[in-house]
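To assess whether ligand presence alters the predicted conformation, the chain was also submitted together with magnesium ion. Input:
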Amino acid sequence: MLHGHEGWRKDAQKGLRPLAGAVVAGRRELMTNAAPIIEATHLDKFYGDFHALKDIALTVHQGEKMVICGPSGSGKSTLIRCFNGLEWHNSGRLVIDGIEVHEQSRQMRGLRQEVGMVFQQFNLFPHLTVLENLMIGPMKVRRLSRAKAEETARTYLDRVHIPEQADKYPAQLSGGQQQRVAIARSLCMETRIMLFDEPTSALDPEMINEVLDVMVELAQSGMTMVVVTHEMGFARKVADTMVFMEAGRIVESAPPERFFTNPSSERCRLFLDQILEY
Ligand SMILES: Nc1ncnc2c1ncn2[C@@H]1O[C@H](COP(=O)(O)OP(=O)(O)O)[C@@H](O)[C@H]1O
Ligand SMILES: [Mg+2]
């Protein structure tokens, strides 16, 4: 089940805007007390001869927000796709919420229900309304009744602040709204971990904030999140841990204070200089 649900619901009802300070104050305690929910050790992944992930070691604790950045082609998508069984590692060990993940695992269905993913392209069904897009997974996978699925769908559509869009088709929505539907769709599956793969990269600039706002609220609800993004304002606000990848390796992993002010690797420093220049 989703943790911290209630907190978010209350905040959403009160219409509170997320306060960055509140996140910062709470997050260290969370990190020290929480159990690991994603544990990767010595992960390697090949596409044919190409070595896409090299000896990856990483731990995400329950409730932790990890932000992963790095140049294009460095393996960010490949890594998080391993976390929900869209890709398989070739060697090493990956344990997600107690499930040992490998290609032959019988528990993949369970894994997909625990780990949701939001993509750069929203991947909504164009021929279904927003509500139907949100209901289909819970009905098929979680075997909810139509009525219960609709109730769940409306709850999460409220949560992403577009209840009035329920009966429209995706093409009738803006990119920002479509991405918020995609986030709601993942939440409808009651996932415990949410992965985001550059969720705002395909959006027009004026729509980026509405999606980031929803993600900040989700972060404050206590959701465990691994977010690939170059939105460094968002990262500073919510990240417990910043990770920089290059050429299939984790080159730097540090709390944001240190990551942004004093990264230990020169490559990370150069990358940050480039993306923070403007
Ligand atoms: N399905 C695939 N087959 C072959 N090579 C792939 C595949 N997916 C990704 N790659 C390669 O693996 C590397 C890492 O890709 P990716 O994880 O998408 O990087 P990032 O998300 O950091 O841009 C890239 O060089 C990419 O071309
Ligand atoms: Mg990618």
